[in-house]
User: Fold these one by one.
Assistant:
Number 1:
Amino acid sequence: MDVDELELLQEERDEQPIRYLPKVLNGGISGIVGVSCVFPMDLVKTRLQNQKGSATYNGISDCFKKSWEAGAPGRVNQIKGMYQGASVNIFLITPEKAIKLVANDFFRHALMKDQTERLSTPRGMLAGAAAGFCQVVITTPMELLKIRMQQSTENVKATKLIWNLLTKDGGIRALYKGLGPTMARDVSFSALYFPLFAYLDGLGPRKKDDSGDAVFWASFVSGLAAGASASFAVTPLDVVKTRIQTGSSNYTGILNAFYRILSEEGVKALFKGAICRMMVMAPLFGIAQTVYYVGLAEKLLGLEKGSRV
C-alpha cells in the first residue's frame, strides 16, 4: 500500500462517523446470548474458586453434578438451580458489554496514528485497558450480586439482596465491594484480549465484499482463542475478586488476599477454576465478537455495516 492509498484510507476513517447505537445493540445481544449459553459453567467456576480447606467439590464435573442435584426435585428446578444469579447477569450484561466494546472502538479510533493501517500492539493494549477500566462501573455490582446469589443456599431475589446491601451493609459502597480486584482483572484482561483478538482476526481470510472484515469462522475462532488465553492469565485476580466479594473471608485488600491465599493454600489455589473460567470466557467472547463484527444490529436496523477501526 503506497502513501497515497494510506492517506485516502485515513481520510475515509476521519470522515466516517462511528455509529454507537448498533454497537451498543450488538454488545447487548451478544452478551445475553453468551451468558445464557455459559452461565451454568460460570456458577461452577464461582463455587470452585470460593472453596478452601476441606474440598466440597472434587473438580469441575463433581461440582456440576452436585450443583445439578441440589436443585432437585424436578428437572425444571435443577435447570433453574444452574442459573441461580443469572437474572442479574442478563439484566446488566447489555450495558456492561456495550461499554466494553464501544469504549474499545472509541479508544482504538482515538489512538490511531495518521497514515497507519493497523493499530500498534502497545496502543491496542492501552485501548483495551481503558475499555476495561470504563466497564467496572457496571461489572463490579453485577459480579458481586451474581456471586452472592450463586453462593446462596436459598433462592434469594436480586432486589432483596440489593435492598439489604443498601440499607444494612453500607449503602452504595457495599455494591462496589471488590472494586480494586475487579478493576485489576478487567483492565488486565482487556489489555490482553483486544490486541490479541485484533492480531488473530487479522490473520484470518477476508470476506469477498471489499469490507476488509474477516470471514465468520475467523472472528469466532479468534474470539475463542483470545478469550481463553486472556482469561487464564488473569485467573489469580479473578480468584481474589471472588473471595473478596463473597464476604466469607476478612481480606483487607488485594495484596492481603494474595498473601493469605498463597501462604494458607498454595499457588494452585490462585488458579482454582482456571479451566472452568476458560470454558466460560472463550465461547462468551467467541459469540460476542462474532455477533459484534457480523453486524447483527445493523441488519436489524437496516443500516450498512461500516468498516471497523
Number 2:
Amino acid sequence: SVAFSGPSAAGGGAPAAGAVALTGADTSNPPAPASSSSAGTSSGLSHSRAFTSSFLAGAVAGATAKTTIAPLDRTKIWFQTHETRFNLRACLAFLRDSYRSEGLLRLWRGNTATLARIVPYSSVQFASHEQYKRLLHVDGGRFESAHWRRFVSGSLAGVTSVTCTYPLDMARARMAVTKSNTYRNLGHALRCIWRQEGALALYRGFSPALAGSLPYAGTSFYTYETLKRRFVFGGVAGLFGQTSSYPLDIVRRRMQTAQVTGHPEYTKGIWHCLRLTYQHEGIVHGLYKGLSMNFVKGPIANGIAFATFDLVQWLLRRTPMFSDQQGGK
C-alpha cells in the first residue's frame, strides 16, 4: 500500500506531501500500511469495516484507472480480435478514423460497459485480496517467508473477481468491436448474447480468462507487495502481470468476439485458438499482438489503480463512518 510518512496508519493525522513512498528498510517491524489486512485490526476497525473500505476503494481505483486509458484499451481490443497487423501507424489510423467517423466520444465507446464491469471486478478483487492475505497470514510472518503467500493471495483474488464478473467482460468486449447501433447498452448486449447464442455464451472464453488471471493477478499483487507499494512499482507490477499471461488474453478476446468478427473457429477451445493464431499470424504479430500497447497503458492503469486504492482506503478509514466506532468486532 501507500506508506505515508509522518502519522501512522492508526493515527488521525493527514498524510504528508509526497506521501507515496518506499517504506523503511527495517522489515522486522514495518509500519502497518493502509491496505494490509492487519491495518484494519491495528487501527481498531472491525473486519467488516475493513472489508467495506477495501471494497469501496477498489471500486474508485478501478473506475479511475480504466477511464484514463479507455481509448488505448479499446484500440488494443480491436487489434486483438482482427488479423490486421499491429503497429504504431495502424493504431493512430484506427484512432483517427474512429474520431472522424463518429466523434471524440467514439474513443470511449464501451467504457460504460467497462465501468459496469470494472467497478464490481476491482471491488471484489481488492477486497477479496485483503481477506486472502488475512487468511494466509501474509503480513503476520517473517518477510522472507511471505513470498509464496503473496502470490497465492493475489491469484485467488484474481480468480474470485473473474468468476463473479465475467459476463460483464464478455459484453464489454462485444461492444468494443461492433458498430454503435449493434448494442444499445450493456444490458442490451447481455440480453442479445443470451437470446441469440444461449446462456453459456456469456462465459465463452472463461477458461483462458481464468487461467490468465492466476499468473496475472498473482504476479501483479506479489510484485506490488514485494516492491513496497510505490506508484511506479504499481506500474511495474501490472506490466509483469500482463506480460506473463498475454497470449491467454488474446485467446479470451477472440473467443468472446468470434460470433461478430466472422471467426467461429476461435470458439473450439484454448489450444485450438492458440494454434490458429500462431499459424496465421505468428508469435510477435499474433500471440503477442498489442503487447507494446500494454507497455504504455499497463503501467499507467495499474499504477493509478494501486495508488488510488491505497489513498482512498486511507481516507475512508479516517471518516466518521469507520473511525467513530473503533474497537468494535
Number 3:
Amino acid sequence: MDAIGVLMMCPMSNYLEQELDNRFKLFRYWAQPKQRDFLADHAASIRAVVGNATAGADAELIASLPKLEIVSCFSVGLDKVDLIKCKEKGIRVTNTPDVLTDDVADLAIGLILAVLRRICECDKYVRRGAWKLGDFKLTTKFSGKRVGIIGLGRIGLAVAERAEAFDCPISYYSRSKKGNTNYTYYGSVVELASNSDILVVACALTPETTHIVNRQVIDALGPKGILINIGRGPHIDEAEMVSALVEGRLGGAGLDVFEKEPEVPEQLFGLENVVLLPHVGSGTEETRKAMADLVLGNLEAHFSSKPLLTPVV
C-alpha cells in the first residue's frame, strides 16, 4: 500500500504519523507552505485523508481531491468533516468511538472533583508556603450532588455510571428518552439545568447543539451550579459563561474545550472556581495508540476491500 497517497491534516500522534509513513505514501498537509498549490500538484495521488477534531475534510478540500475515497478521523467528533459532501461523492468516513470513552469520562469526574474541592488552588496553596500561615478554606462535597448530563451516548453514559458511585442522582437530556436506563429524563436543557447541581456537556457537536448551553441554561444552573464541558467548545456560549462566572451567577466550571482553541478567555485565568485544561480528554498514551490503530485499521480495511472497523458513512 506504499503507493497510496494519504493526506494527514495536522500533527496529532507521532506513532500514527510514523505508521502512516511506513505503510502509505504520506503527505503532511501542515508542512506545506503553499497548500493550494500542493493540493493541485498531488490531487491525483491522494486517496485518503486523516483528520481529527481540529482539522478534517471540508467541502473545499473534498472538491480539490477528485481521487479521495476515505476520510479516517483520529477522533470521535466529526464536526470538521462535511458528511453531506462525503455521502454525495461516495467517500467513506470513519472515526474512533469506544476506545476513548473511559478516558473522557474519567476526566469529567476529575474536573468535577477539581472544581468542587479546589484541587488546583490547594496545590498552589501548598507550593507558595501559605499552609504554614493557616489551613485552606472549606470546599464543597461531590458525593450526593445532582448530576445532569447533556447527551447520554457512550461518553455520557460512562460519566453517569461513574457519578453513580458517588451516590449522585442522575438526570439527562437528549433528543429522545433512552429506553435502556432508569435515569431521569428532561425534555429541555433548561429543565435539566434547573434540577442539577452539576451540568456535564457530553453530546456531539452539530448545528442543533451549538450553544446548547446559553444564558438561559446558565441562569437555570445558578450561582451554586457547576458546568463541566468535555464535549466541544461551541456547545457553550462562551461569552455568556464568562460573564456568569465573573459576575457570580454561575458557581464554577471545569473546561477541557473552548470555542476558539487554543485561545482561552483571559478573564477565566484569575478565577479559582474554574479549572482549565488544554483539550486532553483522550490524552493518554494507551488511548491515543488505540485511536491511531483504529485509524490505520480502517485505512487498511478500505484499501484491502474489507469491511471498515468503525464506519460512519
